[in-house]
Amino acid sequence: MANKLTILRSKLSEHLVKAEILRYLGPGFLITIGFIDPGNWATNIAGGSEFNYSLLWVVTLGTFMLIVLQSMSARLGIISGKSLAKNVRESYPKWISWFLGSTIVLACVATDVAELLGGTIGFHILLGFPYWLGALVTIFLEFYLTHVVRED
Asked: Where are the alpha helices (DSSP H) in the chain?
């Protein structure tokens, strides 16, 4: 009986270790899934239909880079208590900070265009909104969620 109890305890501890690992992996998976928005889905489907599996390595490499960069940024934020932008501003000369900030703004604009198109098409498909109305609702929601709803 004691032998069965020992086996049961070891299996339970293995299960708890796996659950502990999943607890830390969960946010990473959510961020990775969130990375695939409607614009990315459309791009992936169009690229896949034209090039089959030859672009699969690009998606895999991009996802791997995303995980590495986000984990590095999270570690920097946890250790320093500051955001990546504040760390860059304090660590580099002003012109480098300005250049890096400009590239971030351009990346945000590109992402925002994909969100705008994805939201517009989504409102059209799901609710039958005309494209112009879906675009206006999406712009309003983006503005509201980024400027009005703050915890500052």
From this structure: 2-35, 38-51, 56-80, 84-91, 94-127, 131-143
